Amino acid sequence: MKLKKIAYYLSLPLLYLIAWLPFPLLYLFSDFLAFILFRVVGYRKQVILLNLKNSFPEKTVDEIEKITRNFYRNFTDMIVESIKMLCISKSEIEKRFTLKNPELINNYHDQGRSIVAIVGHLINWEWGCLVQSISSSKDSIVIYKPLKNKYYNQLVYNMRTQFGAVLVPMKSTLRKLTEYKGKPYILLLAGDQYPGKGEGVYKTSFLNQTTYVHLGTEKTAKMTDSAVVFGDIRRKSRGFYEVTYVSLIDKPQNTAPGEITELHVRYLEKIIRESPDTWLWSHRRWK
């Protein structure tokens, strides 16, 4: 525990130094970091290449190489932009991350309905959670997996909740939603994490591979009778993003088993195929 504490306090000045960089310098640093990770260190390069080759067997070696190179730049942009959350202002977030159709969310809330919003690990999902908590008049509940280092976990917790988001550990989801019974909210979930094999998972084909998907989204939507939407995040230019909420299911209790899960998996797959370098290929999605 002492080593974790020492590592945290030693890294904190560097993190704040990066966070206070103006955006042009921040992206110069990101370019440098991408070069180091791609050309020098080869950070998880074999995992990335294997994931890409299995997902896009139709692509040439040169096409896979280009996606890989662009992935590292997107990856390091996401890292430095997440660090930037240590000192970013509300007005800066609102300028750089636009909600295209907040009326979709507001209309459900006006009806007294809650929403389950699915996102993927695409581009900058962290800023998306911040801007949603700013934009909504109702609580934004973000489900997350706590970090093992309690010091970094508290830092990330503070960053994600600074504009009002309610951060809830994955294991406490049911308890928290029970507290919100009768009160509209938007629940933000990542729909592309590896769930393991066993009860509560759904087996499907995703990016040409047998894939297990957590059924938490589907179960939660049915249990709470919440509308299901997908948060489609796109990059307009470097450092500027927009999200469009796409309605997937209005009446979850009328759906067949697996229907909601298939819908959000297929939508995520569509986005990845359109912009393959923007997904988090460095994680071991298929184990």
TrEMBL record:
Domain of life, per lineage: Bacteria
GO cellular component, as recorded: plasma membrane
GO molecular function: acyltransferase activity
Transferase recorded as keyword: yes
Transmembrane segments annotated in the record for this chain: 6-29
Signal peptide location: none
Compartments, as annotated in UniProt: Cell inner membrane
One BP annotation, GO: glycolipid biosynthetic process
Location (main, coarse): membrane
InterPro entries assigned: LipA_acyltrans (IPR004960)
Keywords from the UniProt entry: Acyltransferase, Cell inner membrane, Cell membrane, Membrane, Transferase, Transmembrane, Transmembrane helix
PANTHER family in the record: LIPID A BIOSYNTHESIS LAUROYL ACYLTRANSFERASE (PTHR30606), PHOSPHATIDYLINOSITOL MANNOSIDE ACYLTRANSFERASE (PTHR30606:SF10)
Protein name per Swiss-Prot or TrEMBL: KDO2-lipid IV(A) lauroyltransferase
